[in-house]
Every structure is written in C-alpha cells, then in structure tokens.
Amino acid sequence: MKKFLVLISCFLATLFVSGQSLPDQSDPDTNQMHLNEILNKWHRDAAAGNHAAYMGAMGGNGVFIGTDPTEYWTTAEFSSWSKPFFEKKRTWNFRAISRNIFIGDDGTVAWFDELLETQMGICRGSGVLQKRDGTWKIEQYVLSASIPNDIMKQVTAMKSGNDSSLILKGIFDKYGMTGTILIFDPLSGRSFGYNPARWDSGYLPASTFKIPNTLIGMETGVIKPNHVFKWKGEERRLPQWKQDLKLRDAFQVSCVPCYQEVARKIGPARMKSSLEKINYPGMDVRPENIDRFWLEGNSRITPRQQVDFLKRLFEENLPLKSSVMKEMKSIMMQETTPEYALSGKTGWAIRNGNNYGWFVGWIEAKGKVYFIATLVEPKSQDKVDDFALARKTVTMEVLKYLGILE
Question: Where are the alpha helices (DSSP H) in 124-267?
C-alpha cells in the first residue's frame, strides 16, 4: 500500500493543473511562462492539500497513465479515490527540476515534458493541455520512472515476474475468465504460471476424475482397454453420449453416465482403497455418493495435487500395472503434431451456482515435458457460451507466450 501511495503521489503531483485563463498574448515566451506557472501552482496545490483546486484543473474527459501498467484513471475515478488522502493531509510536495513547454499554432493546445524530484527519485512526466472557453485544462498526463541505462538490465530482471503476470492475466481477460494456471518443469523442479495464490486451493475435480476412474477401473478389471459402453436408449444430456462408446471415445467425449457406471462397479470400498493406494487425495467417497462424489459435494483437489498425480502417471510411478498406465497415457492423447504432443482432460463443475473448469495434462515439446493444471472461471456467470473452449484455449495461449510452444 505504501508503494502504491507513493506512486499516486507522483500522479497527483503531476496530473491536475488549476484551471486558469491564459491571457490573449502574442508573445510565445509570455505564454510559456504563464503555463509554467500553472504547472508550478499545481504542484503547490498538492503540497497544500487543496483538493478542489487540484482536481478541478482536469478536463472532464482527462486521463492519467501511471508508472504501473495497470494504472489508467479518469478524472472522476481519481477524484473519488484521492479525496480521503487530501482530507487527512497525506499529500506530497514535488518539485520540477526542468520543463519543456510547446504550444500549437492555433494557441489552444500545449504539450509539455518535465523532470520531477519525487519520493520515488527522479520521475518524468509529460502531458497535454487544452484551452477551453479561455481556460487551460490537462487532458492527459503520463508519469514514468526515470531509469538510468546502466541499471536497466537489473530493473528489467527485477520486474520480469510482474510483467509476465500481467500478460498472463491479459490472456485470461481476453476470454472473460479469471483463474489460475500451474506449469511444472520436472528438469528444473520449477513451478510457474499465473495466480499462484490459487495453486493450493481445492476444487471439485469434475471430469478430470475420469483419469483415476479409468486407471482404477482397468486395474481392478471392471473395464478393459477394449471395453464398450452400451447405450440402451435412455435420455442423456449430450447427443454425443447417445450411442455405444468405446472406452477411449467415452473418455474423450467425457461421458458422465459411462463413468458413473464404472464407479458403481468399482464400489465405494474398492474406490477408497484404490485412491489411497495411488495417492489421489481429497475425495469424499461414500456408498450414497459413489457415482457423483467427483461432481458435487465435499471432494476437493488442488492444482498442485493434480500436477503431482499427473507427473507420477507420466513417469509410470504409480503402484499399478505398467500396461494399465501405458494404456491410460494413450487414451489421454489429444493432439500430436511435428512440434508437440498434448495429453490431458477437461472438467466442468458448478458449485454454489458458479461454473469453473479444468484442463489438466502434459505437453511434450522441444525435447521436454511440462505438466499443467489450468482452472478457469467466467467473470460473468451469465456468460458461459465460450467457457468450454476457453479451458484449453487459455492453456495453449499461455504455453505459446511462455515459449513452450512456437
């Protein structure tokens, strides 16, 4: 918060010029002197905590662009935010070290740049003023930190994490989503991605549970790799489920009734013991919920736990038959191109009326493998039209941005 207030201090000290009329003078030097005094007064108004004069100098459609890439304010937005600080006299006193002012040929537009002595060290400001009804108002101000060239590499390295996080957030925003993505590189042992605060939060696994469900079903002999789920004509929610489905196809189209049948045949006792055996945590398995515990109720798994389980499956380091794990990996294969091979599973859950969805799996590219757990939630629960595609699309765009894919 302190860092943010210092940044705002730079903003306020360089945003709003008290609206002042510029006399009709033909001498360019006189005009520049007048504008220069307007800017100096603006800084003095900040130091004095004169909110009305400070904010009143901004044009009605004015904007300020701060040093942080997220900072873009309108006059009204900043006025509301800043008023409590003015009232508490928690303001600032900035001094212009140098300033250049230029006035357009018609005398109604001026632009300037200045170096400022601030609590953040030297800052650079630039802005545009426009003369309306004989009064000058600031229409735009841009504040930037001044970074010497000889330390630019260090600064760039220090802020690279923030820069990356902002870009990844933009990918989620592009599709109207919030959420997180965890990517694990086993060679370096490093986890990276977006919004790590959610990597250890638990969520219903939804249809990503079809991975352990398939493994346990094959290991116990409930299903075999050539198993066919027979459709008996009963109503099913999706048209692609209304047919006989081979195991691989049932997995790929995420046939919920098919996998409910598998869970019932495995049974609660065998399901619980098998989940403990393969260390798939957080499942609330009881006789009364054996065919829906992964879809509703108290079962929870975190993105980090998803990735840990996927890594052990990929490395065939689960206490299961090697043939079962190999078959599971084959079933999970989604895309194979000359550049990469993608394996995984989507999931979609609704909890307390809120939709959220998974894409979990791994990608093999450039001679390496990365394990992935993506969780997305629509920003507006009334707009879920693109939600199903966004789970995988967001994942692929993040992988491209990070250079894992071309």
Answer: 152-174, 210-220, 247-252, 256-266
